[in-house]
C-alpha cells in the first residue's frame, strides 16, 4: 500500500502535493514574436531535398504558422487539463504532470521521456493508462500516472546547480520523488530513449522497490561509457562483404544519428549559444530529429502536426532548456555509469520491451527482431518478461503508436502488480 511521508496510507486520501498549473507570461510570448520577426535567414539554396539538413522552405512555412496561426493559450489549456506539480528533489527543480488512476487499486507509474521529447509526448497514453475502463479496458489495470520533465528539460528548469546531470543521477531523483516525496512503497516505471536508460537504471539499482519496468529499447546501461561514445559505428568500417542493401541501411542509420550524438556529446554548449538566442535555430535543430527519427513516410506532419511541433518547441523555448537538455548526453559520457551491484541480469526488475519497425537494425525484419535481440549480448542485461516488435512506429513510440505501447505495457505489468 502506498504511504505518504508520515507513513499514512495514500489510498482513499488526497495527493500529498498541491497542483500548480503551467503558465507562460504574455511578456515571454511577445519576446518570442519579436525574435521570430527579426530572424535572419541563411540562403538555404540547393537544399530542397534536405541533404544538408532542414530545408528552408518548410521551416519558413512553419515559422509563419508560429507567428500567425499557432495558439499557445489553446495548447496551454489542453496541457492544464492534467494536474501539474513543481517540487524540489535533493536541490533539483522537478516538474511533473499527473493523472490519478481510476480503478480498485491503481499502481503508481512514472513515465520518462527522452530527447528532443517533452513530458507532453506521453499525452496520448496517459488517459488510457490511468482510466482503462473509459477506453474499453479493465479498471483493475489502472495506473496512477506520474510524468516528469527530465531535469534541465521543459519546466524542470532552471538547472543552475547541477551541471553534471545525467541518466543515472536522474534515476536516483526519480526514486526519491516516488518514495520519499510521494510516499509510494512500490511503483512501476516506463521510458523511451534517455528515459529508457533512466528506467533501466531504476530497474538495476532499485529492483526490490519496483513492480516492473517497460522500455522502448534495451540498450546496455554502459552505452555512453568509453572514449568514443559520440560514434555510433564504434569506428568500425563496413565490411566489403556486406550486401548492398544492408550497407545502405547502415549508412542511413549512421546519417540519422551521427551528427546528433557527436554534437551533443562533444559541443552541446557551443551550439546552445545560437539555439538559446534564436527560436528558429532551436526549432530547426529539434525539428530535424522529429522529421528524421519518426516513421512518417517522408512527411513529418504525418506524425506531428504543425501545432504538435510548435507546442513541443514552445516547452523547450520558454524554459531556455536547450543547453541543459542537450548536456545530458555529454554527462552520460563524462560521468560514466558504474554498476550498483554485480549480479546478473544487470537489470533485475521484470522488464518489458517494445521494438518498432523504423528502428529495425539493417538487415533485420520485424518478424525476426525479437529473436535478434534475444540472441544479442544485450538480452542478458535484462530480466525480460515481455518483448514485442511492431511493424510501424519510430523513435517516439508512445506518440506514434500509442495503442501498441499501451498494450505492451499492460501486458508487462499484468503479472507484476
TrEMBL record:
Q: Does the keyword Hydrolase apply?
A: yes
Tell me which Gene3D superfamilies the record gives: alpha/beta hydrolase (3.40.50.1820)
A Pfam family of this chain: EHN
Q: Which UniProt keywords apply?
A: Aromatic hydrocarbons catabolism, Hydrolase
Looking up InterPro entries in the UniProt record yields:
AB_hydrolase_fold, Epox_hydrolase-like, Epoxide_hydro_N, Epoxide_hydrolase
SUPFAM superfamilies found in the cross-reference section: alpha/beta-Hydrolases
Which stretches make up the Epoxide hydrolase N-terminal domain? 18-121
What are the start and end residues of every segment in region (Disordered)? 1-21
UniProt entry tagged with the keyword NADP: no
Q: Which family does it belong to?
A: Belongs to the peptidase S33 family.
Q: PANTHER family under this entry?
A: EPOXIDE HYDROLASE, EPOXIDE HYDROLASE 1-RELATED
What this protein is called in its record is Multidrug MFS transporter
Natural source organism: Ktedonobacter robiniae
